[in-house]
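Hi R.,

Here's the chain you asked about this morning:
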Amino acid sequence: MNIRSLTIAPSDEAETLDVDLDADLNGTPLQISGEIARPPHNGPLQNGAFELALTFPGIDSKISGRINTSTAYAGVEGELELSSGSLAQALASSGLTSEVDGQVDASWKLSGTLESLSISDIEINFTSRHSDKVTITGAIENANLDPFVDLSFNALLAPFVSAESELAIEILALAGEIYGPLNDLAIRNAQVKTNAAILDIETIRPISVGHIVKSEDGRVGLQELTINNGTVGGPNLTLTGQIDDVIALDGITLTGRFEYPVSFFLNANREPLPDLGTLAGQIELSDSDSWFALNTFKAAVEGSDLLDFSFDLTVPELRRVDELKFATEFAIPDPAAVVELVSGATSEAIPEITFSGQSSLQSGELGFFGEFVSGSSAIKADLNVGQKPETSTWLLSGDIGSEALNLSELSGLAQLAELGFEGSETGIEITDSDASQFAASIHVAAKSLVAGKKKAGDISANVHFGDEVLSIVDLALAYIGGRVGGDLGFNFKTEPPVVSIKGRMEKFPLKNLMNELCLTAPISSTVYASLVLHGETRSLDAFLDTLNGKMTTSLWGDVFRTV
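And the predicted structure, written out as tokens:
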């Protein structure tokens, strides 16, 4: 400390002295003014009262209490109150750098001697410019010579992400303990709460830090950072790394591994099923040039012969997710065995299932391309989801196609699909408001569709949904030698919804058509028909009762035989 001036003079009251100090502390201006009890007969003070105001750049504080100078080391009992409208300026006065700013209010108690002073009942409250709230409580022993810190912190962070970044991961809260000697501080029992339900790790704890360090440029960093979350045999995550600037959350480098039992995905009761294996993977987080990126997030199933699954995800910026790449592959050689293991129910034979796909998010549009195969059935999809210009509506568009679909083989997939949706908390309710914000425009095509002994081919249609109306237009298919074409619509604005049909049948061999109805054709002819119909969709009976419209049929070729 460099003291420029110090004045101690009797005040207007005979029992007190006025104190005025003008100095520099580590190059920072410091002013102290106030009153202290006047020693009787120039002797030592015993339980003498004092009240001083301390002013640092960005900090106004007041300290009051009682002092005793009758011992070898002066004793003090008091309380300090502090207020700052700028955390950045207050930290700068202490030689620290911060890009975070806001209001700070603090108080603590002092007790002991100038040789061994304790600080207790510490309470520091900080509110940032973005409405983040941080509270620090605790104590510091031997504060003046060799401080030992024992503090707890709790931070509630205001939402960072804008409304259009619905996929972004936000840190909602931080908590933990800071302890140790001042020159070797560490963090223990820390936890982070996020809005990410990925792998059921919303709250990450415990977190420990080997050292809290101050860099040459005044930033406070964390070294030997270790995050352990979860239990052996259950979901768990381990990360290690460092943070160069803990106040600004800058210079982050974290790498580690996670494990998640596959049975936890498929079984509502979360019973251990080791035969399904464990999803094990690697994760790497880092920031550069103010970007907080998920550089590596990939995993594969280990320890199972029943299924094979892997994925690889990268996200350049987690705090505002507007770009990502995701690739995944899975194979289930015997789906029936998985159904029986997880549900305990007997399953019909289900052909082997494989899937390979890629997703990407760029410029606000989510793209998906993949192929699903089950037995002889294969479905390819090339889809995009993005916001329609100048509206809040999300549009799903693209193509879905197949060389061959066998509905008999696909029927058993319902049992497998139900495994991931057991339990009372998995229901999803789609409201009218949700439906009004979604639209679709998809082209569908299949060269072959088989159901038992029935077969249709050359199927194509354009499916549109918007404004609570589902339309299937330009529908075309070949069946039993003839062709069907037309439009099909469902209007959900009405109650009950109404279905409308407009179409045409061409070149149907009458014999084939009558055979489908288990009847005998009286002649060999070709059937043509056109129809315009509509009816309510409460039930089949309601549809038949309300069916209205017209239908015309004509027969071409051949003559009626006479007996």
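The chain has a mean pLDDT of 81.

Let me know if you need anything else.
M.
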